Amino acid sequence: MYQRLALSPEEDELSSGPCTNPVGMVSCSSKNCRNFESCPNPVTRYLRSKSLTHNLVPRESRIGWGLNSNVDIDCGEIITEYIGEFSSEARDLKYSFKITDTLFLSALVKGNSARFINHACKPNSRAELWSVDGFMRVFIFAERLIPKSTFITLKYGNEYCFQGGCQCDSCYSK
Ligand SMILES: [Zn+2]
Ligand SMILES: [Zn+2]
Fold first, then answer.
1. 169: CA distance to ligand 2 center in Å?
2. CA distance readout (Å), 162 to 11, 48, 51, 62, 169
3. Ligand showing the shortest atom-to-Cα distance for residue 35
4. What whole-number distance in Å separates Cα of residue 140 and Cα of residue 154?
5. Is 5 part of a structural domain of the chain?
């Protein structure tokens, strides 16, 4: 007489549509994904393998420390997690970047090697804000193939173009 709103568990297992969690930037777990062990969700896979982590190396660049990889990084691959503390304003200009107008991530006190990623106006990676088991976490994705020993760059936001102008490669060569 009434339309059922939810499928029973048995039927749910039979319907095998693709997982939609990545569209909403949500990681997969046994609670929200039927096949989370084999799900192609990039963040879930990254958190399990962290395959690139040991290949990331800070190196001196023209403008101070930067971050390199010892191996090529494929377009779309997660390079690392940007670990830091969230706040509603930029705490420092060197180690924090803007996620939204009211959300900043600072790696000044708590951070990992991602803090060495320099700003570039034409970056080769981008940051995405994901929900992992209900917590906000930021992951750095390669925007294109990044050959090994290339500096990884991110767009930090206009606030980080320092006095004297931006020193990134595309601005410096002008
Ligand atoms: Zn999934
Ligand atoms: Zn620039």
1. 7
2. 57, 37, 33, 15, 14
3. 1
4. 8
5. no
**Closest by CA position to 81, among listed 129, 133, 33, 147:** 129
Q: Total domain count for the chain?
A: 1
Residue 37 and residue 151: Cα distance in Å, rounded? 33
Average pLDDT over residues 74-80: 96
Separation of CA 159 and ligand 2 centre (Å): 12
Residue 138 has pLDDT above 80, yes or no: yes
Q: 39 lies in a domain?
A: yes
Q: What is the CATH number of the domain that holds 138?
A: 2.170.270.10
Res. 162 pLDDT band, cuts 50 70 90: low
CA–centroid distance, 19 to ligand 1, in Å, is 5
Calculate the average pLDDT of the chain: 85
| Domain of residue 107, residue span | 23-159
